[in-house]
Design brief:
The complex is a heterotrimer of chains A (327), B (725) and C (459). Chain A has 327 residues and is mainly α. Helices cover 72% and strands 0% of the residues of chain A. Chain A is globular and about 85 Å long. In chain C, 69% of the residues lie in helices and 4% in strands. In chain C, α3 crosses α16. The longest helix of chain C is centred in the first third of the chain and has 38 residues. The chains are: A mainly alpha (327), B alpha+beta (725), C mainly alpha (459). Chains in contact: A-B, A-C, B-C. Chain A: One of its GO terms (biological process) is transmembrane transport.
Amino acid sequence: MTAYLIRRIWQALPILIGVNVLTFMLFFVLNSPDDMARMQLGDKRVTQTAIDNWKAEHGYHLPLLYNASASGIETVTDTIFFQKSAKLFVFDFGLSDSGRDIGYDISQRLWPSFAIAAPSLVIGLMVNISLALLIVLFRATVIDLMSVAVLVVLLSISGLFYIIAGQFVMGKLLHLVPISGYDTGLNAIKFLVLPILIGVVAGIGSGVRLYRTFFLEEIERDYVRTARAKGVHEWVVLFRHVFRNALIPILTGVVAILPLLFMGALLTESFFGIPGLGSYTLDAINRQDFAIVRSMVFLGAVLYIVGLILTDISYTIADPRIRLANS
Amino acid sequence: MHAPRSLPAALSFTVLLLVLSGCELNTAWNNPYPPEHAQSNRIDSAFSEQPAHLDPARSYSADEYAFIAQIYEPPLQYHFLHRPYQLEPLTADSLPVPRYFNAKGESLSAAAPTDQIASSEYVIRIRPGIQYQPHPAFAQDATGNYRYHHLTPAQLTDIKTLTDFPATGTRELTAEDYVYQIKRLATPWRHSPIAGLLTERIVDFADLTAHITAAAPPAIDGNRPFFDLRSLPFRGAEVIDRYSYRIRINGRYPQFLFWLAMPFFAPMPWEAEAFYDQPGMANKNLTLDWYPIGTGPFFLSENNPNLRMVLTRNPHYHAEHYPTSGSDEDRAAGLLTDAGQRLPFIDQAVYSLEKETIPYWTKFLQGYYDSSGVSSDAFDRAIQFDNDGSAALSPELTQQGIQLTTAVNTSIWYLGFNWRDPVVGGTSERARLLRQALAIAIDFEEYIAIFANGRGMIAHSPIPPSIFGYRAGEAGVNTAVYTWEQGHARRRSLIEAQQLLTQAGYANGQDPTTHKALTLYYEAMDSGPDSKAQLNWMRKQFAKLGIELVIRATDYNRFQEKMRDGSAQIFMWGWNADYPDPENFFFLLYGPNRKQTGGENAANYHNPEFDRLFEQMKDMDDSPARQAMIDQMIAILRHDAPWAFGFFPQSYSLNHAWLHNVKPNLMANNTLKYRRVDPIQRDQLRTRWNQPILWPLGVFAILLGGLLLPVIFIIRHRERRSAYQ
Amino acid sequence: MTLVILTTDALLFLLVIGIISFGIYAARREHLRAPWRHVVRSSIAVAALIICSSYLIIGLLDSIHLRTSPTATQVVSVFDLWCDSLRTRDEKTYSAPFATHALAKETVMQADGTVMRVYPRLQYGGAHLIDPVHDRNSDILRTALLGMIQGLFAWTLVVLAVIQLFAWHSRQPFNTALTAVWRGDTDIPWRTAFITCAALFIVGFISAELSQHYHILGTDKVGGDVFYQSLKGIRTGLVIGTLTTLVMLPAAIVLGIMAGYFRGWVDDVIQYLYTTLSSIPGVLLIAAAILMLQTYMTNHAEDFNSLVERADLRLLFLCLILGITSWTGLCRLLRGETLKLRQADYVQAALSLGVRHSTILSRHILPNVLPLVMITLVLDFSGLVLAEAVLSYVNIGVDPTMHSWGNMINSARLELAREPIVWWSLTAAFLFMFILVLAANLFADVVRDAFDPRMSNRR
């Protein structure tokens, strides 16, 4: 197990380097360090000296990828790319272009994102599984057919609609929840109700439909038929056999996205003014703060890889026949 | 088996909801603030952009001034009520009067001609006894040593915010703090946006910068260790005694007094730099950029730009009183009820992060923000026009006790033509006529009506009202674009524009060389929700003359770059005045101030006669002679038409009945100290306006129950059947 | 009048030609034809297909671009010319659906110089009415009735023609064919098809009639007709939904098959490539790419003659970058499938006989992974249409001057806070998008069931 983990982490390195190179190229194709300096220094009365100062202060005075004026190893290390990327690998994100410590901001904004994403996931799972079970109970009846039709309809509604309509009805018309904002501690609950509700409702269409097929797949297996033929009660069959076994693909699917919960929901957070990582990323894109975007891309890639590893591990736990070495 | 059991639960829940919805609740569910703050004496406000810099040497935007102007106190301020804008002392004991010297250092009279004046000298005397806010940088131990000026990494490990330092201290404000700040402006790594300007204005400023660069220790990991500026000699700003200091300016520069009312010239104690510049502080965001330290009526007690900023009353604030003089209108508006009272009135101001306009507006209507602007989308609900065209609040909002205040901003939006462009720019008659024709065709009245709901005033010159040099009525009409008829300025007709176009050689908008429609390029910034409509509108304006307008929409960054390299052809841009002086508007068209040479003249306009007049006008005191000169300059601009003068935006702001002492002051940013709130009234109204409406939830629950019932019935039925089988 | 071929137009028509030729190719191969036969026998699929086709026809008409005169710099599509009246009849600003007066009051100067705030009459909406308050409803009813009659008439003609063809084809008398269709006794569910057509014809003709005199879905902030904008949004949605998959197909197929077939270091490199790409959060990648394109366009402004071309390039680029973020999934699927196929007996046999790799790939592997590709194409469509709206909301979607549902939603989200509330742009965009996505989802379901034998007994 340990050896496996070490090997997977070792394999992740080239991927992370690749990610870094790619984002770096993309951002410097579109923005010269001069642009970034001007963006940060504001637009009134900025002189070239001030720009050069800023660049030197933030380490953007070096060449991008290759330093021709240096010698030896420094041709590669004494560049913006190396200076800015190397520290990422020890999770030292450095200062944003506007001068705040990125690591500090991420650690602050992680929790609001998580506070929305985790309950949405858990409640969503519970709702989706119960609904799917209910539908499976009525398989091959009109109810099943109609439910599937409703699910497809739900699935075809744009997520934006759920957000806009939810905010309008619950916040503006009915005065049930604050229309936007966030607070720390227990005071956060009233701000979280609506985003979580919307998250759950928006996920019903696709979630229930997927879980329904999992359950149906399980229900047609021989052992289930045998159990039923032996006269085991329908509820028992459903819960003891079908539910338990179908839970494996459901949970392994969930494990893959667990780490990404921290990345935050872009739309929900910006609509509800929740200071999570999603809105952090969106703001950084709009302000073209390269340091933040690069850090978030890196973080996203790391979490994605963690998700992959977790999935592999959960497969072996769920089904001991699969050995880790094969994956 | 859980489904049947949940049905009674659902039903009883429904009943509960229905019962609840019948009676009045005394809490509002949608209150975004914690219940314990319900009746506290504070202001609830919002900010939409994270402030990037709170260091007064660095900050130069209205968003940031909203905070730091309450914290830092420059020597002068604008009078809260008087119009036109008038400077008055804040920490100074009187307005400084400049003394002039010639090149030999001999004193000159104030009437001396400008070209003889080599330097001017301002001596500022501050009032004794002013204390700083409580701050750990001042904390001393029993022996008088600073407790937190030599922190070890171990001491820093548990520190996350400024409040984690247990001890605080204070000290008296001295003249040295003001001089220290001016020296900070010259410090290259502080990136002061006005350093370039001050290099020209303040004596020896460039030398000081060079001196600092040479003497300062190098940066470690991007952070400079503390470098004490006190000992550096500087002729530009000198301490005379504990309470007075002297600033020396090159030549004559009457506008300098306005600068003394801006946070750039606020005091900065050396202890602050000694404290913040310690290693390890910047990595915790403990910098002057984030934690200000001032003598003002408030200090920043909570600094979380991701969520909220809180200003709390400074316990050491010096005696300052509400103004006792004002106009009769001010008295009628109740703005003098508090005359002579000690400032500030409120204990706290809470600014919540609110990025989107819809939630902001909705929360304002729900009473959770004390004041609000009026976005164009909510306009028709809020504002109604009388038959004479004057704005008033809608009955609905009047009933809520909301009040409206309006003011014409000291800013201008204009359509600029790049003077260096071969088609629309330059002194040729062809280009001039084309510009004139366009200036007529682009119907800014319609623009204001559609995109600003009429909140704008057509500009006939670059000078907005409330600035010296503005002329109202017939005398102020731009006759190149308007005619004066029956007491109204009337835009010249499209036919006249078409005639001008024909004279310019573009009959029906056709380019004589290609025989196609003349194609012009419009540089547009940003691409927000509204911009598509605006761009379409702009295209229509040009199409009226048969001209095809190609729009190049880019982000603001790129837009600025195009302005700098002068590759744009036509563009629309705005300017917000730094200080209430015509110089601050005309310099946007001053030739040597071209954008390409680093100035603000985005149109790259250049006219020797205009430049000559500008150089004379800028150093004059307000007088009929100055007015005559301004009239002459405006006449040149109207003839040359480097801009189609757009409009002066008007700001409408609304405030609830419980907020008092609101008068728009576009120059002063430190007006929070004048505000007064009635928290009891606010709490009552908020609760009354925000009763949760629960019956739809009940209806929904009943519907759900109605849907579940047959399902349960079927399940039961099936079970029974399978049991029989 | 000269034809202007934009890149996306060309690609869209290429796709249509591709689909037709694939149809001809598949018709001769039983393993490809059988599932499709299954699809067209499902009444849901047929109804969905008809709705999708009606969208497609509008989208294709909107993809033939013309320059009306040699001097004009403006480019219009055949669709624009077809509903020229909708395009050009702009009001000043907002008006509600079927309104005759503007939504907001306006300052009007009377003849005597006094100023009044009134709701002005619209320039076009209901302009033919003399007394709009009184006559409007009956006029709408009358016009709608007229449209319905026209629609039914046209529908009857089409139905009779199709039944005649059907009778001809199956060598039955016309009456027998008619009865079979009426009873629903046909292999292909013609009855469902005709009912769907009837609904489409009636709605289409009614809205066509009404939109001559009214803005049936209101107007937007600058007075543009919302109905027209919603129709124009169809092309954008279709282009994003189809071209994205199209542009990513070559890379996904080639790389996926290569990785699965050659294994070894080729597999390692390709796996590395797609893991790296898929580990970057998609939105960030798209944002970066779109910003980059904007820079390019600003620096090379002279290469773009018209706004349409600029917008078109951005649309294509968006498809491309969406493709890059989404090809990894298909690539992984194809790799797995190829790994499995490579172990199949006939491939092993061919290998041992020394058949060239290229022959094995084109003869044995490619045809067998095609169903997988097809399912992906259909399944991805609706997701991409929805994604466009979200991206436009964060300002990294299609060009702001382009008509798209995402742009409509983006500009309309501020309208909900207006008083009186402006709900029609938002509703129209959501409705048009919803119908297309719903039809596509239903169709995709049937296609997936047809191609995936494991799933075939589900329904």
